[in-house]
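Regression test case RT-17, inverse folding.

Input:
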C-alpha cells in the first residue's frame, strides 16, 4: 500500500516556464531556473544571451548538456546552432559567445562557479 506522502513525492511537477521570472546572470545574459536541487547540484535553466553577449571563461564542475533553441553558441571548439545539442565534459573549459543571440535549454549535473554565484545572489 502506498501512502499519501509517497504519492506526493512521486508526483509529476509541471512547470509553467512563462511564469518563471528571468534573472540577470551577467551582462546580456539572463536565465530562468526551471529546476534546481541544491543538495545534488542538479540544475536546469532556460538561458538567453543578447546578440554579441558571452559567458566569461569557466570550468565545468560536471557534465553539461545544452540544446540550442534559437540563434547559436560559439566557442573555440565550434558552433552549436538552433536545433542542435552540445555536451561538455567535467573539467572542460570555454568562454562561449552568441554573435547573433542565443536561447538555450541547459542541463547541469552541477552548476559552474559563476552560475552558483548567480543562484546565490538571486536566492534561487
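Golden output:
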Amino acid at each position: 500500500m502506498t501512502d499519501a506522502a509517497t504519492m506526493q513525492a512521486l508526483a509529476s511537477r509541471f512547470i509553467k516556464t512563462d511564469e518563471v521570472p528571468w534573472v540577470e546572470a551577467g551582462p546580456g545574459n539572463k536565465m530562468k531556473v526551471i529546476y534546481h536541487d541544491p543538495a545534488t547540484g542538479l540544475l536546469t535553466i532556460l538561458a538567453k544571451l543578447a546578440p554579441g553577449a558571452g559567458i566569461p571563461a569557466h570550468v565545468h564542475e560536471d557534465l553539461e548538456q545544452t540544446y540550442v533553441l534559437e540563434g547559436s553558441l560559439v566557442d573555440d571548439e565550434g558552433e552549436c546552432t538552433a536545433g542542435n545539442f552540445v555536451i561538455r565534459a567535467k573539467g572542460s573549459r570555454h568562454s562561449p559567445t552568441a554573435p547573433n543571440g542565443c536561447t538555450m535549454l541547459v542541463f547541469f549535473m552541477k552548476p559552474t562557479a559563476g552560475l552558483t554565484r548567480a543562484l546565490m545572489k538571486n536566492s534561487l
